[in-house]
Amino acid sequence: MGEHPLKITPITLADDRELIYFDDDPEVLAGRVTRERRDSRDLPGSVTESEMRRDPLTGQWVTYAAHRNNRTFMPPANENPLAPTTPGNLPTEVPAGDYDVVVFENRFPSFSTRIAMPDDPADYAWAVDGEDLVPRRPAAARCEVICFIPDSALSFRDLPLSRIRTVVETWAHRTAALSQIDGVVQVAPFENRGEEIGVTLQHPHGQIYSYPFLPPRSRQILERARDHRGTTGRDLFDDVLAAEHRAGTRIIASTDDFTVFVPAAAKWPVEVMVVPNRAVADFTDLTQDERAALPCILKPLYIAVDRYFEGVERTPYIAAWNQVPVQSRLVGDDESLRGEGRLHLQLFSLMRSPHRMKFLAGSESAFGAWISDTTPEAVADRIRAVWPQEAEWQ
């Protein structure tokens, strides 16, 4: 299948944020078309005061990014900041009049490498109210936006296979780059889709977060994988895949490289996982053949998710890629988690029936005790029933 030709063009925006064009267009690859490199806007410098505090009761880090409260919210179509910049309209985040895939530093980031800090680190309040019980840290990492396509009327499901491959290559490129930032522990590409999820921009896009700590779900997976290996001597993901294949009731699709299934203990109203069949740490660890094969799984999956509910054209969802953390950053008690985990997609929706959302009320929100209104087997049956034939998506 071979490598996927790409032209990668980094530029600097007016406020010193980085933007990178990832182009697969033959005209761009041949140099006959170039991307605009100058941002004509007059923007103030990008500086935040993001901070993290560790909850003494749970040990989990909570991030505070008050500047995000004023971020762009559902602008009119002619003020879409993720569209290409076109004549007669306001300049957007993307100076070019067209693009294939583009990534840029979030203008309103949760985590940032541009945090206002005192000249002397000793002057920073490293504990809340001076109490060591509640440590405080700058939320230093990087958040990026990835735009999959310039047309705001389309969605990830509408991308041709070659463009999905470009997105996969972009995730790999950014995973490698963000993993090099000092203090970053994990890189996590994800997409929120739908107003019901809380999306503030309708343009088809995702985000790529780098975390300066190990997020709770990632930690739980790694701890379970470590304990499973210690008890059985086997890889947890290998055993999960083997068990799902033996049962067969929740398998949606399976290829030489990937398995798509509804987890046996799925908790969301609609939930699907995509897992490589071999131990893969992150996108950079995928072979060229695996990178080429992944779009052939993702496109029909996203089509099926949008067909799940009758009368719903676009199912609201969260599609999150869990990657193995930067191994060298696991220190202290976390050193025992090295070598565990596997790249996987968790795609889920909070919609429980057409146009009705599941609200995380007392049991889920207060205690983290999940109660589902369906069963994983019923979800799998429905996804298989609406899974498109190859002729519908090739």
From TrEMBL:
- A biological-process GO annotation: galactose catabolic process via UDP-galactose, Leloir pathway
Cofactor(s) this protein cannot do without: Zn(2+)
* Pathway entry: Carbohydrate metabolism; galactose metabolism
Domain of life of the organism encoding this protein: Bacteria
Q: Can you provide one Gene Ontology molecular function annotated for this UniProt record?
A: zinc ion binding
Matching entries from InterPro entries are given as: GalP_UDPtransf1, GalP_UDPtransf1_His-AS, GalP_Utransf_C, GalP_Utransf_N, HIT-like_sf
Enumerate the UniProt keywords alphabetically.
Carbohydrate metabolism, Galactose metabolism, Metal-binding, Nucleotidyltransferase, Transferase, Zinc
Reactions catalysed according to its record: alpha-D-galactose 1-phosphate + UDP-alpha-D-glucose = alpha-D-glucose 1-phosphate + UDP-alpha-D-galactose
Please give one Pfam family short name: GalP_UDP_tr_C
Q: Which family does it belong to?
A: Belongs to the galactose-1-phosphate uridylyltransferase type 1 family.
Q: Which NCBIfam families match?
A: galT_1 (TIGR00209)
Name of the protein in question:
Galactose-1-phosphate uridylyltransferase
The organism is Corynebacterium glyciniphilum AJ 3170
Q: Provide the organism lineage as a comma list.
A: Bacteria, Bacillati, Actinomycetota, Actinomycetes, Mycobacteriales
